[in-house]
Amino acid sequence: MKTIIAVALLFACASAFSIKGDEGLVKFELNAHEESPIGLVMKGHIDPKDETNNKIETFVKLASAYIPILESVKNENNNLKWTNNWHFNVGIGSISLHWNFEIIVGWKVRVNSNDLNMTSDHLNVAYVPFISGFTNAGLQGDTYPARGYYNATLWFARAYTVIALQIFSSGNVCFEGTGYLWPVQLTSALSSALKGCKAEILDEVFNGIPIVFGCNYTEPFVTPHLDISFTQNFTEPLIGQTCVNL
How far is 40 from 68, CA to CA, in rounded Å? Predict the structure, then answer.
């Protein structure tokens, strides 16, 4: 637990967003953990004239080094994932361990439907590049009468940027942007279930067949345990409406 909290505190530092128009592109950057020696950095650009040129790059920051890990192009999502499972038989029961780590980067695109149904000199469209990262671990114990499960999830990156564009037929582009960041958060829960068995005894005795019990675990009872936020939600205006000729 101390290790998990220490990692979370490394990520729980101030974040920085930026957006600007340059070289015919709308460029953006999200440094989710600006003051931490380790963290995630998302950079990219939007091409108002050709969305197939849209691009997001994600880096792991280690001190002053930036290590590329994921790239999303043409508005397609991409992810990095590791998963492992372990299973052990112990006496009259068994223990199972599960762990996974995942980072997802991608886009959502929102077009104003009114612009598609009327003649206009511009198109309103919003691009929403996002990053989501978490790690999850679970421990399950099974015996004949009962089952118990403990699960913990650490969300270390959940952020997105809304970049609203007005693309004019004259070649001008107006844009504005807002950044959103969820907290670094640790959650966990404990669940338990009992095994119940039943059989159609009278029918089986009447028909002269062996009595067979069908056994299944009951619906699990879930008890929340931890819910710790190491940072706060915040919304940051990146740039007011800015118009350029791209």
Answer: 10
CA-wise closest residue to 50 among 174, 167, 195, 205: 167
b/e for 46-71, b at 16 or more Cβ within 10 A?
Answer: bebeeeeebbbbbbbbeeeeeeeebe
Judge residue 154's burial from the number of C-beta atoms within 10 Å of its C-beta, 0-12 exposed, 13-18 middle, 19 or more buried. Answer: buried
Q: One-letter amino acid identity for 239?
A: I
Separation CA 89–CA 63 (nearest Å): 43
Give pLDDT tens digits for 191-228: 999 887 765 655 555 566 665 666 777 888 999 999 99
Enter the tokens of residue 44: 């990219």
Q: How far is CA 20 from CA 4, 42, 196, 240, in A?
A: 36, 15, 62, 11
Q: What dihedral do alpha carbons 44, 10, 230, 30 form, nearest 10°?
A: -10
Q: What CA–CA distance (Å, rounded) separates 19 from 197?
A: 61
pLDDT tens digits, one per residue of 103-161: 888 878 877 655 554 556 777 888 888 888 899 999 999 887 889 999 999 998 888 88
Predicted TM-score of the model (pTM): 0.69
Strands (E), 172-220: 172-181, 185-198, 214-217
Residue 202 is given by DSSP the state: H
CA-closest candidate to residue 180, choices 166, 198, 163: 163
Quick check: helix, strand or coil at residue 43?
A: strand
